[in-house]
Amino acid sequence: MIVYGVALFSACLLIGLIAGDALGALIGVKANVGGVGISMLLLIVLAERFKNELNLESASGRGIGFWSAMYIPVVVAMAAQQNVLAAVSSGAVAILAGSGAVILSFALIPLINKMNKKS
Fold this sequence. Notes:
The protein is mainly alpha-helical. Helix content is 84%, strand content 0%. Keywords: Membrane, Transmembrane, Transmembrane helix.
């Protein structure tokens, strides 16, 4: 049932947001630091664990798969709430970090393609 997917999705999101707030408080930042990423990783790990225990052809497995796929648009929507203008106007570090991540991601594409061809 899709309800199991919603329950897993909700639990991962809540745990991730709490962990992100705790991490932010730990490093002295008044913001959620990595909560969405933590919840995404937790959802991936738990979905894989349940995939082995549940029959993915069942309604429960399809519900978990559906909400795992829906997580990407949720992350995009949450990232859209960030104040990009304030980050860019505060200095060049934000621009360099973002550009560096994009360039590194593009540079890794050929390596990933070579790894897929070998296997």
